[in-house]
Amino acid sequence: MSGRCELCGKTATFGNAVSHAKRHTRRVWRPNLRYAVIQQGGAPRQVRICTRCLRTQRKAAA
């Protein structure tokens, strides 16, 4: 299972964690993924989407 949003394709972002002593160590920012049931092609489908897409889907449905 990949850490990718099935709607927008958002994946992990890489960078550095910087301490107060300015030491740089590699770190990862992962997308906040949730399982949701959405309508695709008229049929309900369970997908793994980020919370930003989930919010957009709920706003569009209202």
H/E series, N to C? EEEEH
> Beta-strand level of the residues, as a percent range?
over 45%
In total, the number of domains comes to: 1
Main beta sheet strand tally, sense and closure: 2 strands, antiparallel
Terminus-to-terminus distance: 31 Å
Compute the gyration radius: what is it?
A: 16 Å
Explain what this protein looks like in three dimensions.
This protein is of the alpha+beta class. It has one domain (13-61). It has one helix at residues 51-61, and strands at 13-18, 24-29, 33-40, 43-50. A hairpin with a 2-residue loop joins strand 3 (33-40) and strand 4 (43-50). The longest helix has 11 residues, at 51-61. The two termini are 31 Å apart.
Short description:
This protein has 62 residues and is α+β, with helices and mostly antiparallel strands. The chain is built from one helix and four strands.
Task: Considering the chains and any ligands shown, give keywords for the structure.
1 helix
How do the helices and strands line up, and which of them pair or pack?
Layout: E1 13-18, E2 24-29, E3 33-40, E4 43-50, H1 51-61
Antiparallel strand pairs: 1-2, 3-4
